[in-house]
Amino acid sequence: MGNDIDSGKWDCFQAGLRGILIQKGDDAYEDARKLYNGMIDKSPAYIVKCADVADVITTVNFARENKLKLAVRGGGHNGAGLASVDEGMVCDLSDMRSCRVDLKTQTVRAEGGCKWRDVDHVTNAFGMATSSGIVSTTGVAGLTLGGGHGYLARQYGLTIDNLVEADVVLADGKFVTASKTENSDLFWAIRGGGGNFGVVTSFVFQLHPVHTVHAGVTLWPLEKAKEILTWYQDFILKSKTDLYGFFAFMRVPPAPPFPEELYTQNVCGAVWCYTGDFNKVEEVFKPITDTAPVFSHLGSMPFPILQGLFDDLYPSGHQWYWRGDIFKELSEEAIDKFVKHGSEIPTVHSTMHIYPIDGKVNEIGKTATAFSYRDAKFSVVYAGVDPDPKNAAKISTWAKKYWEDLHPHSAGGAYVNFLMNDEHHDRVKATYQENYRRLTQIKEKYDPTNFFSINQNIPPH
Ligand SMILES: Cc1cc2nc3c(=O)[nH]c(=O)nc-3n(C[C@H](O)[C@H](O)[C@H](O)COP(=O)(O)OP(=O)(O)OC[C@H]3O[C@@H](n4cnc5c(N)ncnc54)[C@H](O)[C@@H]3O)c2cc1C
């Protein structure tokens, strides 16, 4: 065990754990250290697979007292690889995945290592869902702490807008609850401020009556991309919030349900999710079918099926390089650039998504939570993805060029969860805008030594 920490301390630490301590050389080490993004290769000295809140407290105290760098792992899905740290210790919550629905309050409590598929599985059984993302394997913790946008955002707000309370282990090992009435400054900060303030051991989310949705994919040829993206912006922003659709440039995967003549073609498309009255499906989708998509695959499905639609396309271990931007509008000049780079999608897994963040997201004030872009309409990700490490440079170059060309048209910051590991700290500041200063003050109060620094870091004031 660690050369400069005496063996008595290690024995005591291990004896106090219900979970498992893994270190370099152990059989379980290689698997345990892997991150979702195969482009990022980190070798922590120790990984603590926490079994419960007590393990998290023990781990935080041990790392702090012994001056070990501590990373916190929820779903391990972060593009920038912030769930691990070279030579330090990982507080890994991935075995803490229990969820419980409370029917009286119409809420769900999800432990800090849950993935969204865990939550959706449990809540769907009761005919409900909360606002999350678009891929079921994404971690609840990282997504929520950054804000969280997905299929239900226009109707029910960001994930943080549905957060009722969170249990947090602070840098000094104290366990607190953050809500509107308890530690309200901390509650404000964790609604967008990332993992800067403590380890969240459980989240309580408000649920909504969403069980079966009418959803799926429509595709158009690249020749129509400018016309369709122009139409999409106008259509989605005018639609009722029970319809959600994100726009994409993509290369058609060579597999069903896509028709063979489209295999490996670069196209533009949209993924839809309608939660409203099913008697109105035809009427609601008519403007979409009127655009004459070259492929349309729409139907009714339980919400968790929609959430899992892309899971097979994006298993753990692919190379990922992404950049993000926030837009208040897509000007004609920006649309031309979106089309130019979108037409040059480099690999079958690479994509560019434009996620609407209007509707309910815009009803909340800019300073009401740490997430600051309440007046924006779209969150964009330029995602270079490929299974083969040999293509790492190709996909990164494409994503960077896309970003460099579009960024001048953007609102300045990004969705914090779409920042990459090679971006300057100014990008974090730009992302929080006027909320940045308050975040540094709350950081000073709850984590004055910046113990939680392996994140999109907000140093203390
Ligand atoms: C395929 C894919 C699809 C995605 N789709 C969406 C989407 O639709 N909507 C969206 O909003 N985002 C989306 N994201 C981005 C996603 O929100 C981030 O990658 C997020 O960081 C994932 O959370 P995680 O728990 O898996 O991350 P991790 O990698 O485990 O952690 C990310 C950060 O959060 C901190 N953290 C993790 N757990 C805790 C905890 N319990 N307490 C305190 N801090 C913690 C970590 O220290 C780290 O800094 C997607 C990402 C991928 C790869």
Blueprint (SSEs and pairs):
Blueprint: H1 7-15, E1 20-23, H2 29-33, E2 46-49, H3 53-65, E3 70-73, E4 89-92, E5 99-102, E6 107-111, H4 116-124, H5 140-146, H6 153-156, E7 163-169, E8 175-179, H7 184-190, E9 199-206, E10 212-221, H8 225-238, E11 243-251, E12 266-274, H9 281-289, E13 295-302, H10 303-307, E14 319-327, H11 332-342, E15 351-356, E16 378-386, H12 392-406, H13 425-432, H14 436-446
Helix pairs in contact: 8-11, 11-12
The protein binds flavin-adenine dinucleotide.
Task: Describe the model.
The chain is an alpha+beta fold and 461 residues long. It has three domains: 7-92, Uridine Diphospho-n-acetylenolpyruvylglucosamine Reductase, domain 2 (2-Layer Sandwich), CATH 3.30.43; 99-209, Uridine Diphospho-n-acetylenolpyruvylglucosamine Reductase, domain 3 (2-Layer Sandwich), CATH 3.30.465.10; 212-423, 3-Layer(aba) Sandwich (Vanillyl-alcohol Oxidase, Chain A, domain 3), CATH 3.40.462. The chain contains 14 helices and 16 strands. The strands form three sheets. The chain has a seven-stranded antiparallel beta sheet with strand order 13-10-12-11-15-16-14. Strand 5 and strand 6 (107-111) form a beta hairpin. The longest helix has 15 residues, at 392-406. The radius of gyration is 22 Å and the shape is globular. It starts with 6 loop residues before the first helix and ends in a 15-residue tail after the last helix. The protein binds flavin-adenine dinucleotide (FAD). Flavin-adenine dinucleotide binds at residues 36, 71-79, 82-83, 93, 112, 133-135, 138-139, 141-143, 145-146, 148-150, 194-195, 199-200, 314, 417, 454-455. This is FAD/FMN-containing dehydrogenase.
